[in-house]
Design brief:
The chain has about 475 residues and is α+β, with helices and mostly antiparallel strands. The protein is about 50% helix and about 10% strand.
């Protein structure tokens, strides 16, 4: 059944316009501008420089009016769909390099085939925000085939996962906590203490988790002092390597240009895309004249030249249409996010941030979840209370004791407050944190506490204890 489904899925081929639109949607604004410059450089038919020869005599015609038969007017044609000012003023913001971009940069230094690179890039895109790969390998294989047209198998995916696991920060790409800690230990100088720590996690992780230290010492033949030194190595490891990257301002940070700028007036929200503009794409007069000369001509050379120009014209039309669709998709998606999170964008208070997943915005816009994911990735919005990646506004939800839905981000914030306020001589266990969260109005299961604690990088109670 799986193979049949795969074969059916593969038969649904995307059109050239759809493929180009998808690729443009994924690009943040700075990369989009570079892509436009590349198109202008590689397509000789297009020309974004003013015509010095009597431009007032040139009549404007949209590229959409160019027919397949090649009935091109002798004057230059152009399309201008994005306003008068092709280079409006904009603000840049310094933020640290994103976690995903850091991994992609490291991937670029590896000597891989195009297929291997695409597989590794897909793995990087599948990591959770804390740096873990919480999807089984077979699901990744299927997803690569369905969503990216990458034909591979479990062995090749595992091979590329090992490549990603070799990146910084150490521990990235782990499938569980044990693997995460082991990956970090293996990057250290292999001293006796480190080797003992590896043996504990590799062979006695359950005993380690349950604090059965006598059993570990007995089975590994360790003294109490050796165990303590090995444990000291373990507790200093990072359980959430993806959390190392933040968005604080630094002098060494890369420049991020927001794709959207939020405007708020008396509770009314709107946004602009100030940097999104396309240079005026005009058909170079030399090539337009060539088509006119070729019309009705029987010379083979002129016919071949005209065919070349028409191909480039088709390419230009696809590109411009893909840009239009990108703008429409981003507009609709951002509008839906603003509507869904209206209270939060007015107040800037994290407590007003509603639970929201990709499916919610997909349903409001009518786009596929994969399209929403592409829009959200690597895009930023400037607000009156800061600049944020669009991913920030998405989180799952749970109900509080009043039956109101609250975001996981709010729950994590309250959990952190509980831990910060605890008596460090008697730190709260996960069961006690459940009770404490309940006192604050949040009904949360113990396993949820453990999950959020891990994502926040908060150790177990016994590791938080101070004398």
């Amino acid at each position: 059944m799986i193979k049949q489904g795969l074969e059916i899925k593969q038969q649904q081929k995307l059109s050239p316009l759809q493929i180009q639109t998808i690729k443009l949607i994924e690009l943040p604004i700075q990369e989009l501008e570079q892509r436009i410059r590349t198109e202008l450089e590689e397509n000789p038919v297009l020309d974004d420089s003013p015509d010095p020869d009597k431009p007032e005599e040139a009549k404007d015609v949209s590229l959409d009016e160019i027919t397949d038969e090649g009935d091109i007017p002798s004057y230059r044609t152009r399309v201008n769909n994005w306003g008068k000012d092709p280079r409006p003023e904009y603000n840049t913001f310094s933020v640290r390099q994103s976690f995903t971009q850091s991994l992609m940069d490291q991937l670029g230094y590896r000597n891989l085939t195009p297929e291997q690179y695409n597989i590794a890039a897909f793995i990087i895109g599948s990591l959770d925000e804390d740096g873990y790969l919480r999807r089984d390998i077979e699901s990744l294989v299927d997803d690569m085939a369905f969503r990216a047209g990458i034909q591979t198998d479990a062995d090749e995916v595992l091979e590329m996962l090992k490549v990603v696991q070799d990146f910084d920060p150490a521990g990235v790409g782990a499938r569980d906590l044990r693997e995460c800690l082991l990956l970090q230990l293996r990057t250290m100088k292999q001293s006796r203490d480190v080797l003992n720590a590896e043996r504990i996690l590799q062979d006695y992780f359950q005993e380690f988790s349950n604090k059965h230290f006598q059993k570990i010492m007995s089975r590994l033949g360790l003294s109490e002092d050796e165990l303590k030194r090995a444990m000291a190595r373990i507790v200093k490891l990072n359980p959430a390597p993806g959390g190392e990257v933040d968005y604080t301002y630094t002098d060494q940070a890369q420049q991020i240009v927001p794709d959207f700028v939020l405007e708020e007036h008396d509770g009314e929200l709107s946004f602009t895309m100030p940097r999104f503009s396309v240079p005026e794409l005009r058909v170079n007069k030399k090539y337009a004249d060539l088509l006119i000369e070729a019309k009705g001509s029987s010379e083979r050379a002129q016919k071949e030249a005209a065919t070349f120009v028409r191909q480039k014209l088709d390419s230009a039309k696809w590109f411009v249409e893909a840009l239009k669709q990108r703008q429409n998709t981003l507009n609709k998606t951002m509008s839906a996010i603003l509507e869904y999170q209206h209270a939060y964008f007015v107040s800037g208070d994290e407590a007003d941030l509603k639970p929201m997943v990709l499916k919610d915005i997909a349903e409001k816009t009518g786009f596929d979840i994969s399209t929403i994911s592409r829009v959200v990735n690597s895009k930023y919005i400037e607000t009156h209370f800061g600049i944020f990646p669009l991913k920030y506004f998405f989180s799952e939800g749970m109900e509080n004791k009043e039956g109101e839905e609250v975001s996981t981000r709010e729950l994590k914030k309250v959990l952190q407050e509980c831990v910060d306020a605890e008596d460090k001589r008697k730190p709260l266990t996960d069961e006690q944190l459940v009770v404490e969260m309940g006192r604050r109005g949040y009904k949360v299961a113990r396993r949820t506490i453990a999950k959020y604690r891990g994502q926040l990088g908060i150790p177990l109670a016994r590791w938080r204890k101070k004398l």
